[in-house]
Amino acid sequence: MPTFRTGPRTRLLGAAAALTALLAVTGCSSGGGSQAQDDPNEKITLTVNLFSDFGYADLYKQYEQQHPNITIKENRADMGAHHQNLQAHLLAGSGTADVEAIEIGQVAGFQAQAPKFVNFLENGVDAGQWVPSKTAPASSADGKVLFGLGTDMGGMALCYRSDLFKAAGLPTDRDQVSALLSDWKAYAATGKKFLADSPNKDVRWFDSGGNLFSAVIAQAPTGFYDAAGKPVVTENPAVRQAFDLVAGAIKDGESAGIQAFTPAWDTGFQKSQFATVACPAWMSYEFKANPPTDGGTWDMARIPGGGGNWGGSYLSVPKSGKHTKAATELAKWLTAPEQEAKLFTEKGYFPSDQALWSQPDIANHTDPLFNNAPTGKIFSQSAKDLKPQPLGAHGAEIGTALGNALTSIEQGKTDADGAWKKALADVANIVG
Amino acid sequence: MAASVSAGRPARAARAPVAAHRRHRLDRTLSPYLYIAPFFLVFAGFGLFPMLYTGYVSMTNWRVDVPGSQGQWVGLENYRKLLDDPFFLNALKNTVGIGVLSTVPQLLLALVLAHLLNYRMRGRTLFRLGVLLPNVTSVAAVTLIFVQLFGRDYGLINWTLGLFGVEHIDWQAGTLSSWTAISAIVTWRWTGYNALIFLAAMQAVPFELYEAAAIDGASRWRQFRSITVPMLRPTILFSVIVSTIGALQLFGEPMLFGQQQDPTTGGSQHQFQTLALYSYNQFWGRFKYGYGAAVSWAMFLLIVVIVGANLIAARRMKGLDA
């Protein structure tokens, strides 16, 4: 569920998967999937293609126990390769897995392919399980086909190192931190103060400009696309404003300049190279896997500016799969409220099921990973505050291009204006 | 490969009885072709056809996100667009730059290494096999380790440089620094391979030449320069061509060296995006099939031109049967 998780290992798999996709497209497709006979006891293997760890391992075991004839096999590729492969396989009409994950930043690119997926509305799914902002992007334009079942969602928060805050003379109590960092201007200003007052000069304010930008732009009413699906990167002032805000913070030395979702980023967590991270719910795996070696602790406050969504996913069932019926049942089960609740309390993935947000075991959940911060309350509030942004086919790639531009400022290669200009050239290449 | 066509005449057929003469004559004329057929069939299916088909696609406007664009003929329009595509020209520059930076030191090092391996010494076979080891490890594994070595904050190379007072280098950031790092990976993988090829050629050099030179009082270095290198010229030419082709197709190293969220961009400002990466980016990242195919074909034509120039240059050099 991590939005942009691109570990080296998964990238390898991605390359292999891309190769397979290449063969699938160049070779002739063998036509649509052969529908298996609907013998409920037939021994079958269901394949599930994901782009990161969705925390499903225990759930698979449980499902296999309930359905002794079913074996579940999961494959992972990296974020970009996964979606490219899915596009290519849909096009070729073969090669898709039984269940395929789609990330929210990419889902708009699949809307035109909606007829190639199983329509969950015809398979006993009530769309009211999710808020319309979750179901709309995974529906056909006329709303008659729902091809993605919501798994988790971003739910934004600000993770901060209370020990480092204390050393720099900043408040450590999460309510005080939330009040102090009420918006992004205050956040950037406090970052300057932190750098000046922190006794440890190796610690920066945040991890990477690209990551911060993702969090800031997620709160704008309109992002890279307008409601009509037209790219508006140059026309929408909010994009440039978010870009300039982050570029300014980078210029002030607030960024550690570490590319997110790389081994260096993991090291950054371990070696305390930054004091804050804009953290969607799904990012908690990273905190868990890389505790600070100096014994410091993370805490969690409200995200500056409030609201916004970054990441979150869907499960889909392409019609070209071998066992579409069994796969539909599995996807429904994995995204059912009971399982989603479990994934949050055990793995930290915040459910997109709206009914769960008020359910006591979710709303009152606290996480020892973040000094027992009320993660349930923080993410529920963020989810309820969410004003959905129109999505577009190349949203994820545009975000990456702007993130790259910010990286080049971090690398000292150019200034804000130069980076912006280059980013626009990239965007033109992406949408043109 | 084409040279093997005439080499495969089965001698057995010559002793055939008269009665079956005709069948055997057919056997004699046909069987060589049958023997070599598998290669050409596989090549036609997996080499020639995809290449020609890519050529066809490169002259269409095929884009996945534009329904009905498959087979939309645009002639050479995509190639014209390439000429004023700054990303393509940048990728071309990167490819040639990294190519020179990796091929030249690689071949020089290989030559020296082969010369050393040619000496009589203990455990010679072990060393000779050892130099091939980097080549049999997977490119992905090698690159991932080099990415760690070239890490900005905690990489071994920056740490070592730090001992000599050199500031930490952000290897991915700069054009020259990223080229250097990628060239180091390529050089590490391919030097041993080329060394073995040079070594094989060196062993074919008549020993008498060295003996005579030694009697005339030539030093080891003089022997190397005046005997070994001239005798090795055809082999060196072969290595140059093969390495050049490899360098122009460079893909895995820059892809995995990049720490960007989209590894096909080759750095934050495309500073190490090679032609192969750009082609992949357009084809699989942006789904511009027509344009991506044009990039691939431009790459192919470039290789043909550069290898051709190589051969012509080599022919002009004296004493060379290229």
UniProtKB/TrEMBL annotation, chain A:
Entry's transmembrane regions: none
Pfam families: SBP_bac_8 (PF13416)
Keyword Magnesium (UniProt): no
Keywords annotated in UniProt: Signal
The keyword Signal is assigned to this record: yes
Region forming the signal peptide: 1-36
Alphabetical list of InterPro entries matching this protein: Bact_solute-bd_prot1, SBP
Name of the protein: ABC transporter substrate-binding protein
Organism expressing this protein natively: Kitasatospora indigofera
Name of the gene: cebE
UniProtKB/TrEMBL annotation, chain B:
Cell compartment(s), UniProt: Cell membrane
Gene Ontology cellular component annotations, sorted alphabetically: plasma membrane
Matching CDD domains: TM_PBP2 (cd06261)
Keyword list, A-Z: Cell membrane, Membrane, Transmembrane, Transmembrane helix, Transport
Domain (ABC transmembrane type-1) ranges: 92-312
Keyword Hydrolase: no
Stored InterPro entries: ABC_transporter_permease, MetI-like, MetI-like_sf
Assigned protein family: Belongs to the binding-protein-dependent transport system permease family.
Stated name of the protein: ABC transporter permease
Organism per entry: Kitasatospora indigofera
